[in-house]
Design goal:
Strand content: 15-25%
Distance between the termini: 34 Å
Structural class: alpha+beta
Radius of gyration: 24 Å
Number of helices: 13
Oligomer: single chain
Shape: globular
């Protein structure tokens, strides 16, 4: 049964009314540009000129790390914070530039503030003269990281180590929350604060042990080689998934020397294969060659038979799944948002099908900025539309906010991909065309199609139905696997788009909504995703947590739909519903024409 069928009639009517409301004109995505060396120097100079006002000394600086288009002629820069030439991990700025390359806004992490002799340093003499001289070598740091993983593994790419400054963080209660019981804490009752800094190496290892990918980032002390932190970098959704799911679908292919290839000439440029591509891993862990066929009719619509040919009609079906998912994810972002490919610069990517044998996984790899999907054993083929959208969503996050894949930021990273998967599913089911994201078409359940018993991997509207995820923020959230700490934000997004329910026994109820009406009103999938995308690409830093996400989402809603707009109020209520910030009163329902104005 669709989760929508159990919504109260009044709530459903409100959701439909909101979905029909005309929105403010959607922002137009700028054309990708490359800043000249002179312009880059000017931007860095503008940022550096603000150091004194921020309480930072001259040893603090910026290092540009990425650039992508913004809206209405703007460009967005990602700038890492440096101290004495070294990057401060998890500390960065999102900088929005106008057409003349003047800084319009800067959204910055605060993890650098306590370094140096500036007024912002609250740790005083402990960090005023922080040394950046390592006591162990890069080679020793890599060896220390490998010792904790799999020394016998085969490197996909050579391991690398970056010397940096690593802020050791701790959770601290704000004034007024000291007496609260742990279970009663709201996300805004605590904040992350720097306890100390460590000179460290960030060691990136991308290996395979037999057929299993082992991707990790490890923080190694540059003083004594101790492991300070470590997290899994295989950005995956365990088992999700093809045109065995969608019937006959159109594919964009290329005719090369009398053979058709799964190269899409209409979407993306450059990249590994010169265009968006689907490759045949042929039961291995490497990408393999681009799929080719004598005719332009592909697949048989059936689950792959293990041990059969990966190039025959049955084997082609996984490639059909992948290509249809890739096309729809690209089109949804381009047509509705003006965003091109994963990086906003229209760089082509690819998906490798038939990874390993009976592999119950799909994942995004940062080594190639590409995706890999398995055929499944416990699951069926993992090329379902929501899974492909999910994995490509990781690529978009990697090119923009690059949320650290650990703790609360890691949960938000996973949630962003879950959100993308559901939005792409709705767009594809509605025909894959148009400048708006449709209100209906997705099931708000990740991986239902690939499940052999129709049990999804995750429920967006009630994450705890999987037995592991949380429905709301708590201080224990950051200790969960990122696939489960994503749960509260998934629920937030569902409420933002669809609204909540007033029945305390239902899946759509939140005890944290204490203002009127008891059932909050959603603003529709289109507006909800525009706000999320705007926040993720122009406001989130790599270390954004749930509390900061709420603040940035409110900013995004106000920029797109106006201060005190229904969109802004809905964002506040949706986060309140997951125990992030206070609930607010919702104005009485206005006529449809003015709902989001």
């Amino acid at each position: 049964m669709s989760p929508h069928t159990s919504l109260p009639a009044a709530l459903l009517g409100a959701a439909l009314l909101l979905a029909q409301a005309p929105l403010a004109a959607a922002p137009t995505m700028s054309q990708p540009t490359t800043l000249s060396a002179k312009t880059t120097a000017s931007v860095l100079g503008q940022l550096a000129a603000q150091r004194g006002a921020k309480g930072l000394d001259p040893d603090h600086h910026y290092r540009l790390s990425a650039q992508h288009p913004g809206a209405n002629g703007t460009q967005v820069l990602r700038a890492a914070h440096t101290y004495k030439g070294l990057r401060v991990f998890g500390s960065d700025s999102v900088v929005v530039l106008d057409q003349a390359a003047k800084v319009l806004s800067e959204s910055a992490s605060e993890r650098r503030l306590h370094l140096g002799k500036g007024d912002a340093n609250r740790l005083g003499a402990l960090t005023a003269s922080f040394s950046v001289q390592p006591q162990i070598s890069t080679r020793a740091a890599i060896a220390a990281a490998l010792a904790t993983l799999a020394p016998a593994g085969v490197h996909v790419v050579p391991p690398r180590a970056e010397l940096l400054i690593y802020p050791v963080m701790r959770m601290q209660r704000v004034v007024g929350a000291a007496a609260k019981e742990e279970a009663e804490l709201n996300a805004l009752d605590v904040h992350d604060t720097v306890e100390r800094y460590e000179l460290a190496y960030l060691v990136s290892t991308r290996m395979r042990v037999k057929e299993q990918p082992v991707y990790a980032d490890t923080v190694i002390s540059a003083r004594d080689g101790a492991v300070l932190d470590q997290w899994n970098m295989l950005q995956t959704v365990t088992g999700v998934g093809k045109s065995q799911y969608n019937g006959e679908v159109p594919l964009s292919t290329t005719l090369v020397k009398g053979m058709y290839q799964m190269l899409d000439p209409e979407r993306g440029k450059g990249g590994t294969f010169g265009a968006m591509a689907i490759t045949n891993a042929n039961n291995s862990t490497s990408a393999g060659k681009v799929y080719s066929n004598a005719t332009n009719t592909w697949g048989d619509g059936q689950q792959f038979v293990e041990g059969g040919s990966t190039t025959g009609p049955n084997g082609q079906t996984a490639a059909v799944n992948a290509m249809w998912g890739l096309m729809n994810t690209y089109d949804a972002h381009k047509n509705a948002l003006g965003w091109l490919s994963l990086d906003g610069r229209d760089t082509a990517t690819y998906i490798a099908a038939h990874v390993k044998r009976g592999y119950d996984n799909a994942y995004y790899s940062d080594t190639c900025r590409c995706m890999f999907i398995g055929d499944g054993t416990y699951f069926t083929s993992l090329g379902s539309i929501d899974v492909i959208g999910h994995e490509m969503g990781h690529g978009i996050t990697a090119a923009t906010s690059n949320l650290i894949y650990s703790g609360e930021s890691g949960g938000l990273n996973e949630s962003s991909s879950d959100i993308t998967g559901e939005v792409v599913e709705a767009y594809a089911r509605a025909g894959g065309k148009g400048e708006r994201f449709p209100q209906d078409g997705n099931d708000w359940q990740l991986g239902t199609e690939i499940s052999r018993n129709a049990t999804p991997l995750r429920w967006m509207y009630r994450p705890s139905k999987d037995g592991r995820s949380l429905d709301a923020w708590s201080s224990s959230l950051r200790r969960l696997d990122v696939h489960y700490s994503s749960g509260p934000n998934n629920r937030m997004f569902y409420f933002l788009a669809r609204g909540s329910g007033a029945d305390s026994s239902g899946d759509y109820f939140s005890k944290y909504l204490v203002k009127q009406p008891a059932a909050m009103t959603g603003i529709g999938l289109d507006a909800a995703f525009r706000i999320w995308f705007h926040a993720n690409t122009t406001k989130f830093t790599s270390s954004t947590n749930y509390a900061a996400a709420r603040a940035k989402m409110i900013e995004a809603a106000e920029e797109l739909y106006g201060k005190d707009s229904r969109a802004s109020i809905a964002v506040q209520r949706a986060y309140a519903a997951i125990n992030v910030g206070p609930d607010v009163e919702e104005p009485a329902m206005a006529p449809a024409r003015s709902l989001l104005q």
